[in-house]
Amino acid sequence: MKKQSIQTQKRCVCCGRFFRPDNRVGNRQKCCKRSACRKKYQKAQQQKWREANPEYFRGRSEYVKKWRESNPEYQKQWRAKKRGEIQMQIPPVSPIKSIPLKIRADTEISEIQNLVLSVVYAGEALWIDGRGGDA
After folding, report:
1. CB-based contacts of 40: which residues, under 8 Å, 6+ apart?
2. How far apart are CA 99 and CA 103, in angstroms?
3. Contact 125, 101 (CB under 8 A)
4. Do 133 and 118 contact (CB within 8 A), yes or no?
5. What integer pLDDT is reported at residue 87 of this predicted model?
6. Prediction pTM value
7. What is the CB-side half-sphere exposure of residue 63 using CA atoms within 13 A?
8. Does 108 lie in the same domain as 127?
9. 105 and 135 together in one domain
């Protein structure tokens, strides 16, 4: 069963403009999709909640202080455990597979010059030919 689309428009509680509510939210949507309105509405809702729940954040620090005094080694043990988990999660370093390079060139390798090279992968080796190329 599909949700019916909301065809009615509502007035934004922040800016007063009319907007079409999102179908997923329906009648619960109070403000338009503009970021300034959403921020303003969210701030107002948070302030309203804090006023309705003034004791929520009070007294928690005393509780935590008492608990930490009764469990002084907890933080050190927790950190040591986390460090161990982190070290266990790092995969072991695997060596890079080495491939021998076979170079056929009439020039010395130390010379700096423009050189057309053709690279061919054959079996377990890469052949770099200094004579080839279509140049």
Report:
1. 14, 31
2. 13
3. yes
4. yes
5. 58
6. 0.42
7. 5
8. yes
9. yes
Distance (Å, whole) CA 21 – CA 19: 6
Of 49, 5, 53, nearest to 26 by C-alpha is 5
What is the C-alpha end-to-end distance of the chain, expressed in Å?
A: 68
Segments of the chain scoring below 50 in pLDDT = 1, 6, 132-135
The answer to whether the CB of 18 falls within 8 A of the CB of 10 is: yes
Beta strands, E only, 36-91:
none
Tokens of 15: 């800016």
Q: Which domain holds residue 68?
A: 60-89
pLDDT digit string, tens, across residues 24-53: 988 899 999 999 999 999 999 999 999 999
Overall number of domains in the chain? 3
